[in-house]
Design brief:
The protein is of the alpha/beta class and 315 residues long. It contains nine helices and twelve strands. It is elongated, with a radius of gyration of 21 Å. The structure holds oxalic acid. Oxalic acid binds at residues 73-75.
């Protein structure tokens, strides 16, 4: 691919929430032939490619040479959210290691609730010796809300541990050993059997705020929530109300409506909520750099880029 390259790609790293110098380091360590600018360095305007994570809206529209926008992760929601986004391809990172990292986080979260580590941690704090009955993994149901590539990897990893796994997606999907549900019609049935619900949905207009009081009320009493999708999927106040009323056992949250999570958020110190700072899985920056480089080179050679998103569906 690279020997056909017409010119050295000029890549601008743009974010309003992340220090993007880690990506500069990754490009440099990989010795890839690119010119890099970090927004708001003066020359970022001239770049051919924007590598964006929560880029300030309108900034990419001010880049006259822009031919490609690339995410540094799987999600494209923060890019499609820009109302002035230029009409160029928008691509995601697809990384099997990243999906496996998501599976590790999901497994840890499921074990927290299934093996009642939340209860044991509380017992330790109170020096209480309590030995609850153990439930077999095969009798414990994990529901994956959002059954795309990452959802499938997570589902297979949990299945390999003998959990009873079910998945829900907008359109029908089939996978051996996993009960699948699709569409609004089957959502209630899907939710009604989940001991733990894991959200891995993409963020779109249709999924924003989907985890609200109504959805949570359709989970069985004592179920738990793991949100590894986007903070905007969850109505945080509805979650706290469902936990405080005793309907839900607790939650593990890796993503939030506003990141970083505000210091005064009640989620931090709620005894039944476990907060992590959007670390469920981070793609290896060198792999990200090499996928961006491949796509930048393709675009400059008039070839279709790999892993493009679809602005109509929003992912
Ligand atoms: C992603 C993420 O989009 O980690 O990849 O949030």
């Amino acid at each position: 691919m690279s020997n056909k390259q017409a010119k050295t790609p000029h890549i601008a790293l743009i974010s309003s929430t992340l220090d993007m110098s880690f990506m500069k380091v990754a490009f440099e360590k990989s010795a890839l032939d690119v010119r890099l600018s970090i927004y708001p360095d003066e020359d970022f305007h001239a770049a051919d490619v924007a590598v964006a994570w929560n880029a300030p809206h309108g900034v990419m529209a001010s880049m006259p040479n822009l031919k490609l926008v690339h995410s540094i992760g799987a999600g494209l929601d923060n890019i499609f959210a820009d109302p002035h986004l230029p009409d160029v391809p928008v691509c995601r990172v697809v990384d099997s290691e990243h999906a496996l990292g998501m599976a590790e986080y999901a497994i840890w979260s499921v074990l927290l609730f299934h093996r009642e580590m939340d209860r044991h941690l509380q017992n330790v704090a109170e020096r209480r010796w309590e030995r609850p009955d153990q439930i077999s993994a095969r009798d414990y149901t994990v529901g994956i809300l959002g059954f795309g590539t990452i959802g499938l990897t997570v589902a297979k990893s949990l299945r390999a541990m003998n959990y009873n796994v079910r998945g829900w997606a907008r359109s029908p999907k089939e996978e051996a050993g996993i009960t699948t549900y699709s569409g609004a019609d089957q959502l209630t049935e899907f939710l009604s059997g989940c001991d733990v619900l894991i959200c891995l949905l993409p963020l779109t207009a249709a999924t924003r705020g989907i985890i609200d009081a109504d959805l949570l009320s359709q989970l069985p009493r004592g179920a738990a929530l793991v949100n590894m999708g986007r903070g905007e999927h969850l109505v945080e106040a509805d979650l706290l109300a469902a936990i405080d009323s005793g309907h839900l056992r607790g939650a593990v949250l890796d993503v939030f409506q506003k990141e970083p999570l505000a210091k005064d958020s009640p989620l931090w110190d709620h005894p039944k909520v476990f907060v992590t700072p959007h670390i469920a899985s981070m793609p290896n920056p060198k792999d990200v750099a090499s996928q961006i480089f491949e796509n930048a080179t393709r675009i400059l050679n008039d070839l279709e880029p790999l892993n493009p998103g679809d602005r109509n569906s929003g992912y």
